[in-house]
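Progress against Task 2.4 (sequence-to-structure conversion) is shown through the following example record, which the project officer requested during the mid-term review.
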Amino acid sequence: MTVLVASDLDRTLIYSAAALGLTMPDPVAPRLLCVEVHESKPLSYMTETAAGLLAELTADPSVVFVPTTTRTRKQYQRIRFPGRPAPYAICANGGQLLVDGVPDRDWRRQVAARLAEECAPLEEVHQHLLAVADPAWLRKARLAEDLFAYLVVERDLVPDEWLKSLTAWAEARGWTVSLQGRKIYAVPRPLTKSAAMREVARRTGATTTLAAGDSLLDADLLLAADAGWRPGHGELADAAWTAPSVTALATAGVLAGEEIVRAFIQEAARLGRLDA
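Structure tokens generated for the chain above:
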């Protein structure tokens, strides 16, 4: 039996300093492990307990751990997870499938063909974002892997009505809008983490899939998995989103990441006992 574990990264498994959510008194706060450095500065963390649990999970030969992220390949490769290196990784929201760190060209061609057929071109969406964003709150505008676009913004200054208007405009053109932290993503609707997860399951012969995620862009991944978990923060929690196969955790912040890895281990062990 092979269990595929596909987990979102930012604000699901790993957390920036701003997203840690450490509400307890300082003397009892969990010890943290830095798992990402950017421009010589620490950027992302797990609890030390979560790091140990992840190493335990990836050491299990019956488990295929698949980091699954909207990050670009370059952004993903800054992360240094404990444990055995992941043989597969899903980047760019499913647009890039890495096999031992190398992009799979056949997968990228399949993705490009589907996007060309089913949704408006990236350049149209990118130009619209630039035209309607307000310089008062826009900090950066970026393209990711020539697949989708995102804005870095001062979140508190972005009007709710502006976001609703952008969402409606994008949906009419086959695109999805998601607000995550200080980033507003515009992603083609056919570009999904779930499609890439299914491809990895096919290649590995996985009989069961487990998943976790916190944002709107993770909903398809959670629905496609046999069992899923979402933390008590993020877009999905704010919308009270759930599904029959998804466990909605009450825990928020970096401790939710720890709880999610523990749930992966427990479910993989349970499946192993059932298989035996």
